[in-house]
Amino acid sequence: MITYYDDRSVRVTSTAVRVDGRTFPLAEITMVWHRRGSRSWRVLAGRGAIGAAMAGPLVAAALGLALAIRLGRSPTVTIAIVGASVLVGLAVGPVADFLFEHLDRSYARGSRQLELWARWRGQPVRLLSTRDALRFGQIYRAVQRAVEQGQPTAAARTPARGRRG
Known about the structure:
The chain is of the alpha+beta class and 165 residues long. The protein has helices at residues 41-71, 75-90, 92-109, 133-150, 154-157, and strands at residues 3-6, 10-13, 16-19, 22-25, 29-39, 112-120, 123-130. The protein is built from five helices and seven strands; from the N terminus they run E-E-E-E-E-H-H-H-E-E-H-H.
């Protein structure tokens, strides 16, 4: 038996697909497809907030520089304002790395509800529903490979005929 995918709730092998305790033998699955739901505005708003958070310190640094130039104060005050603005801008580095990681994870998780469907014993059955795009893709490809490997090829179904020469 070959295992194509295995986690806490889903296991795809060369003989069956098990999802949340329900087992679907591959011999009884004739078709596999997926459906994508509508976008989650909550996820998209979260991505926008992360983008705004990344731009915030840079905007503050630029405003500080503009303020220092606009005020026309003594060189000491101008240098202090410019220095504070530069420090705010430099603080973006570690914060941006943290925020980029969260942004990357949000894309891996996805912004849509994804469903994996199969025709099992002649009836459509929803095998899986998740927003985790990365996990969904891995499971979907595993089920496709398992179903393809379980189907006999045309050469295997047709008896081989030799030629006499």
